[in-house]
Structure formats: structure tokens, C-alpha cells
Write the C-alpha cells for this entry.
Amino acid sequence: MTVLLRDTFKAWIDRAPGVPPRLIMIGDVRVPNNGSLARLTRRSPQGINPKILILDVNAQQPAGTAQEEMTTIPLRYEESPPQDEYGQVMIAHSRGEIVVRIGRTH
């Protein structure tokens, strides 16, 4: 079972001079098998509130047999420039969701 590690998720807008603003979202998930893959993808369609970006966690178990070992996978999502003035990011998975406020600097 894939588990969102709630305290690891952070989001901010990188406003470095000379480049377009960039939304960055990071966090970790724990998966039960060594060799599993996970990534954040933008949900389509988005929800009814345009100020909340919704990202889905997509996790895949390895093909065949894999060693049963709890493994942490770092996730990262970037959007440049952000498509809206988001205030929050919702990270959704089949076992729940978490909402993270977006910081303006990092």
C-alpha cells in the first residue's frame, strides 16, 4: 500500500530573477516493494476551485516478483510558469489526500 508522508510535502513559487516563475512541489511516499515507481501528475480536469492545483500520486508495483521492503520515493512536480495564481496544492491518492499551502519564496 502506498502511503503519503504528510510532513514531507512542501510547495513554493520560485521567483528567481531573470527566469519565469516556477511552481515546485516536493514530497515523499512510502511503498511496500523495492523497485516500485511513483510520480506526481496534474489531474485533468482540475477541480472547481481554480486556486487549488490538484496533483495525483501514481504508483506502480514492479513487474514480476519484488522484494517486500518498505521504500521511500521522493516526488517532484514543476510547472513553469504556473497556470494560475494557486494558493494551495492538493495531493490525492486512492487512500486519501493532503493539502499544502504554497509559499512565495524558497
The CA atoms of residues 57 and 94 lie 9 Å apart. The chain has one domain: 3-103.
